[in-house]
Amino acid sequence: MQRTQVSLRKKILSWFMPFMLLLIIADSTILHRLAVNELGKELDFELYDSVDDISDYLKVSGLDAQKFEVLENASRILLNDDVDKIAYTVTNENGTLLSGNKDLLEKSEHNISTTNSKPYSFFTKINNEKFRVVRAKITIGNESNLQNITIKVAATLNLRNAIADKIVIRILLHQLRFILT
User: Fold this and answer.
1) 42-51, 89-98, 171-180, range with the lowest pLDDT
2) Is the pTM above the cut of 0.90?
3) Per-residue pLDDT, 65
4) Is 16 exposed, middle or buried (0-12, 13-18, 19+ CB in 10 A)?
5) Residue pair 119/134 in contact by the 8 Å Cβ criterion
6) Distance CA 161, CA 39 (A)
7) Which string of DSSP letters, residue by residue, matches 41-87?
8) CA 172 to chain CA centroid, nearest Å
């Protein structure tokens, strides 16, 4: 009888392979979470930039009705996106819609704290689609006629999800390439 000898390399690989796979899964999960968190922050900054653009426009132009018509026309360009649906609202301190998407106003009012003046972001659903919403309160007008305005800009999660999927695939491919070489 002839015994087949198993090489030392194969023995070591068979012993350590389950541990390596567990390590890859843990490492990939941690890297994915970190990458998605950073991605979310960057995409939120883009939404905050849109809020700032609308805020700057309102501070310069004021709150009369003709200016809002121009804002709505300009917002079609400002908020145009090939991947995500974008919506915005501008409301006065009473919550009355001055400009923008009525669905965003109705679906996200329960998330708004009327006492919180700091910008913040949250998730909501509009017409069965999940949106990321950023909200900021600003004060516009002259000293005799100051008005508190709330601006919200929302985007669907299509781009976030597509980039997150690419992150997962790349992390896993690099980990597998590391093991197999």
Assistant:
1) 171-180
2) no
3) 52
4) exposed
5) yes
6) 10
7) HHHHHHHHHHHHHHHHHHHHH-S-HHHHHHHHHHHHHHT--SSS-EE
8) 23
